[in-house]
Each structure stands twice: as structure tokens, then as C-alpha cells.
Amino acid sequence: MKIEFPKINIGISACLLGENVRFDGGHKNLYFANQVLCNYATYHRVCPEVGIGMSIPRKPIRLIEDEGLVKLVDSRTGEVDYTDKMQAYSETKCQSFSGLNGFIVTSKSPSCGMERLKVYDKEGNQIGKNGVGIFTKTLMEKYPNLPVEEDGRLNDSQLRENFIERVYVHADWQSNVVASENMADLVQFHSRRKYQIMSHSYQAYKSLGKLVANHDNIPLEKLKAEYFSQLMSALKNIAGRKKHCNVLQHIQGYFKKELDKDEKQELTELIQQYRAGFVPLLAPLTLVKHYLTKYPNEYLSQQSYFAPYPLKMGLNG
């Protein structure tokens, strides 16, 4: 079951690639981006603060709330307002990102942070921690289905795997469905990702299935937009052990006539050992792939569940 994965296009904050563009003249080198993901991705780097003409090094900036509006200002005096310039830059820059499959931004950055940024009042008092960097806010509003993650969250193995999985789904969609005028391409996409979707949300799989089945009543472009929106939202749910076990048991059913008693018991025990946390997911998956080679099944062979991203990335726990 050899799968050829396309080169993915990833937007990324330049400081995470080791560029000395931060306010203090330093960087935030992200190991995963520089040592792992770089082997599979083409990077499109950006530093919004340098992009609007700020110097290196430069005075720190912060988000403040003023009369219900969030602004980006000089953190020492609050007298220099960068809001309009940053918004204009972000709008223009984001227009060039339609071909991206994902974006990695810098946490805690008033321009690039994705969530939980500190917000202050005009007097410098912290009034909340619910801010979003102006550049990243523009990015997520313009591309709501684009996988976006922060560097810090990518240190969590589950969040890292989830992000990469969504990136490859996004790339597949862009390559095979988004420009197609053929309903069959959407049907095939949904079919080969059945168990992958189920591993994140069985309810989402059923809902998406109904959407595809009802295609005669919905214009194709509207259908694709609704399908992809629901799909990318569902994939944000972490595929935990219980959900994976449910999927593995479904897949085991395809071999009920082929496997002998000992083989069935071996697979059942391995699934239960995975559920209990004694072995990684790769263990039952490897055995299933072995049986799939021994007892070929065309429908199962096309399932992205067995290889949602390149195995050599070392993400499968």
C-alpha cells in the first residue's frame, strides 16, 4: 500500500525558521519545522511586523482595547498606533495565500498569535487574555478552513499530529476536488476518507454522508463549500484511543470470513492492548495492513486512514 504524498505548502512566521526578525533581534527556532516538516513542505515565510517597516530590533508592541476596538500600539507609551498599517498589510499579504495547505504562527505575538493574547486598556492595565494577533485574525477570517497552529501547541504530540493530518486533507481537497466540476470526485474523496473521518467524529461522518447523498438537491459549488467546512471543523476533534478502536473494529469486520480463529484473536487482543495504552496505534494498524496484503480488499486499500500523512514523519503514536 504505497502512497505518494504531494509536497505541501505551509505558511510560517519567519522567526520560527530561525530568522532574527523578532523585536529583540532574536528568533524562535521551531525544531519540528526545521528538522521534520521541512522535508515535506515548501515554506512561505512572513514577518508582518518587518513587513510593515518596523526595525530589527524594535520597541515591543501590544494589543489594547479602546472604545470597543482592539488596536496594535507601542507597548511603552501607546502613542504609536500600528493598527491600520498592520490591517492593510495583512489584507494584501493574505491574498497570496490561496494555495497554502496550512499555517504555523508565533504564539504570544500581537501580530501573529492565534489565541489567548493579553489585551490591555489605554492605561496599560491588563483587562483580558482573549486577543488574537491582527495578522492571524485576518488570515483565519479569510481562510476559515485553513489549518492554523501556533508553535507552542505543536510541542503537544496530539495537536501536532492533528494539525499535520488536517494539512494533508486540505492538500488532497485542493488537488482533487476544489476545481472539479464532477460530483464523482467529491464522492470518491468522501469514500476514501470514510474511516479517517470516523476516527474524529462518527456523527460528522454520518452528516457528511447525508450531505453527499443529497447532492441532487444542492448546487455542486454550494455542496462542496458546505462539505469542506463541516469536514475541516470535524477533523479538529482529536482522534483518541476509543474512537480509533471503534474504527479498527469496523475494519476488522471486513476480514471476518478470511481470518482464522487465531488471527482474529491476535487482532482483537492487539486492538484492546492499544485501547489500554500498552501499544501504539501503529501496532494494530501494521497487523491490519498485513492482513490487507494477505487478503486484498479494494475498498479498504484506498482508505486514507492507514496513511493520513507520511509515516516517516514519526507522528503516529
UniProtKB/TrEMBL annotation:
Record-annotated DUF1722 domain positions: 194-310
Pfam families in the record: 2-thiour_desulf, DUF1722
Listed name of the protein: DUF523 and DUF1722 domain-containing protein
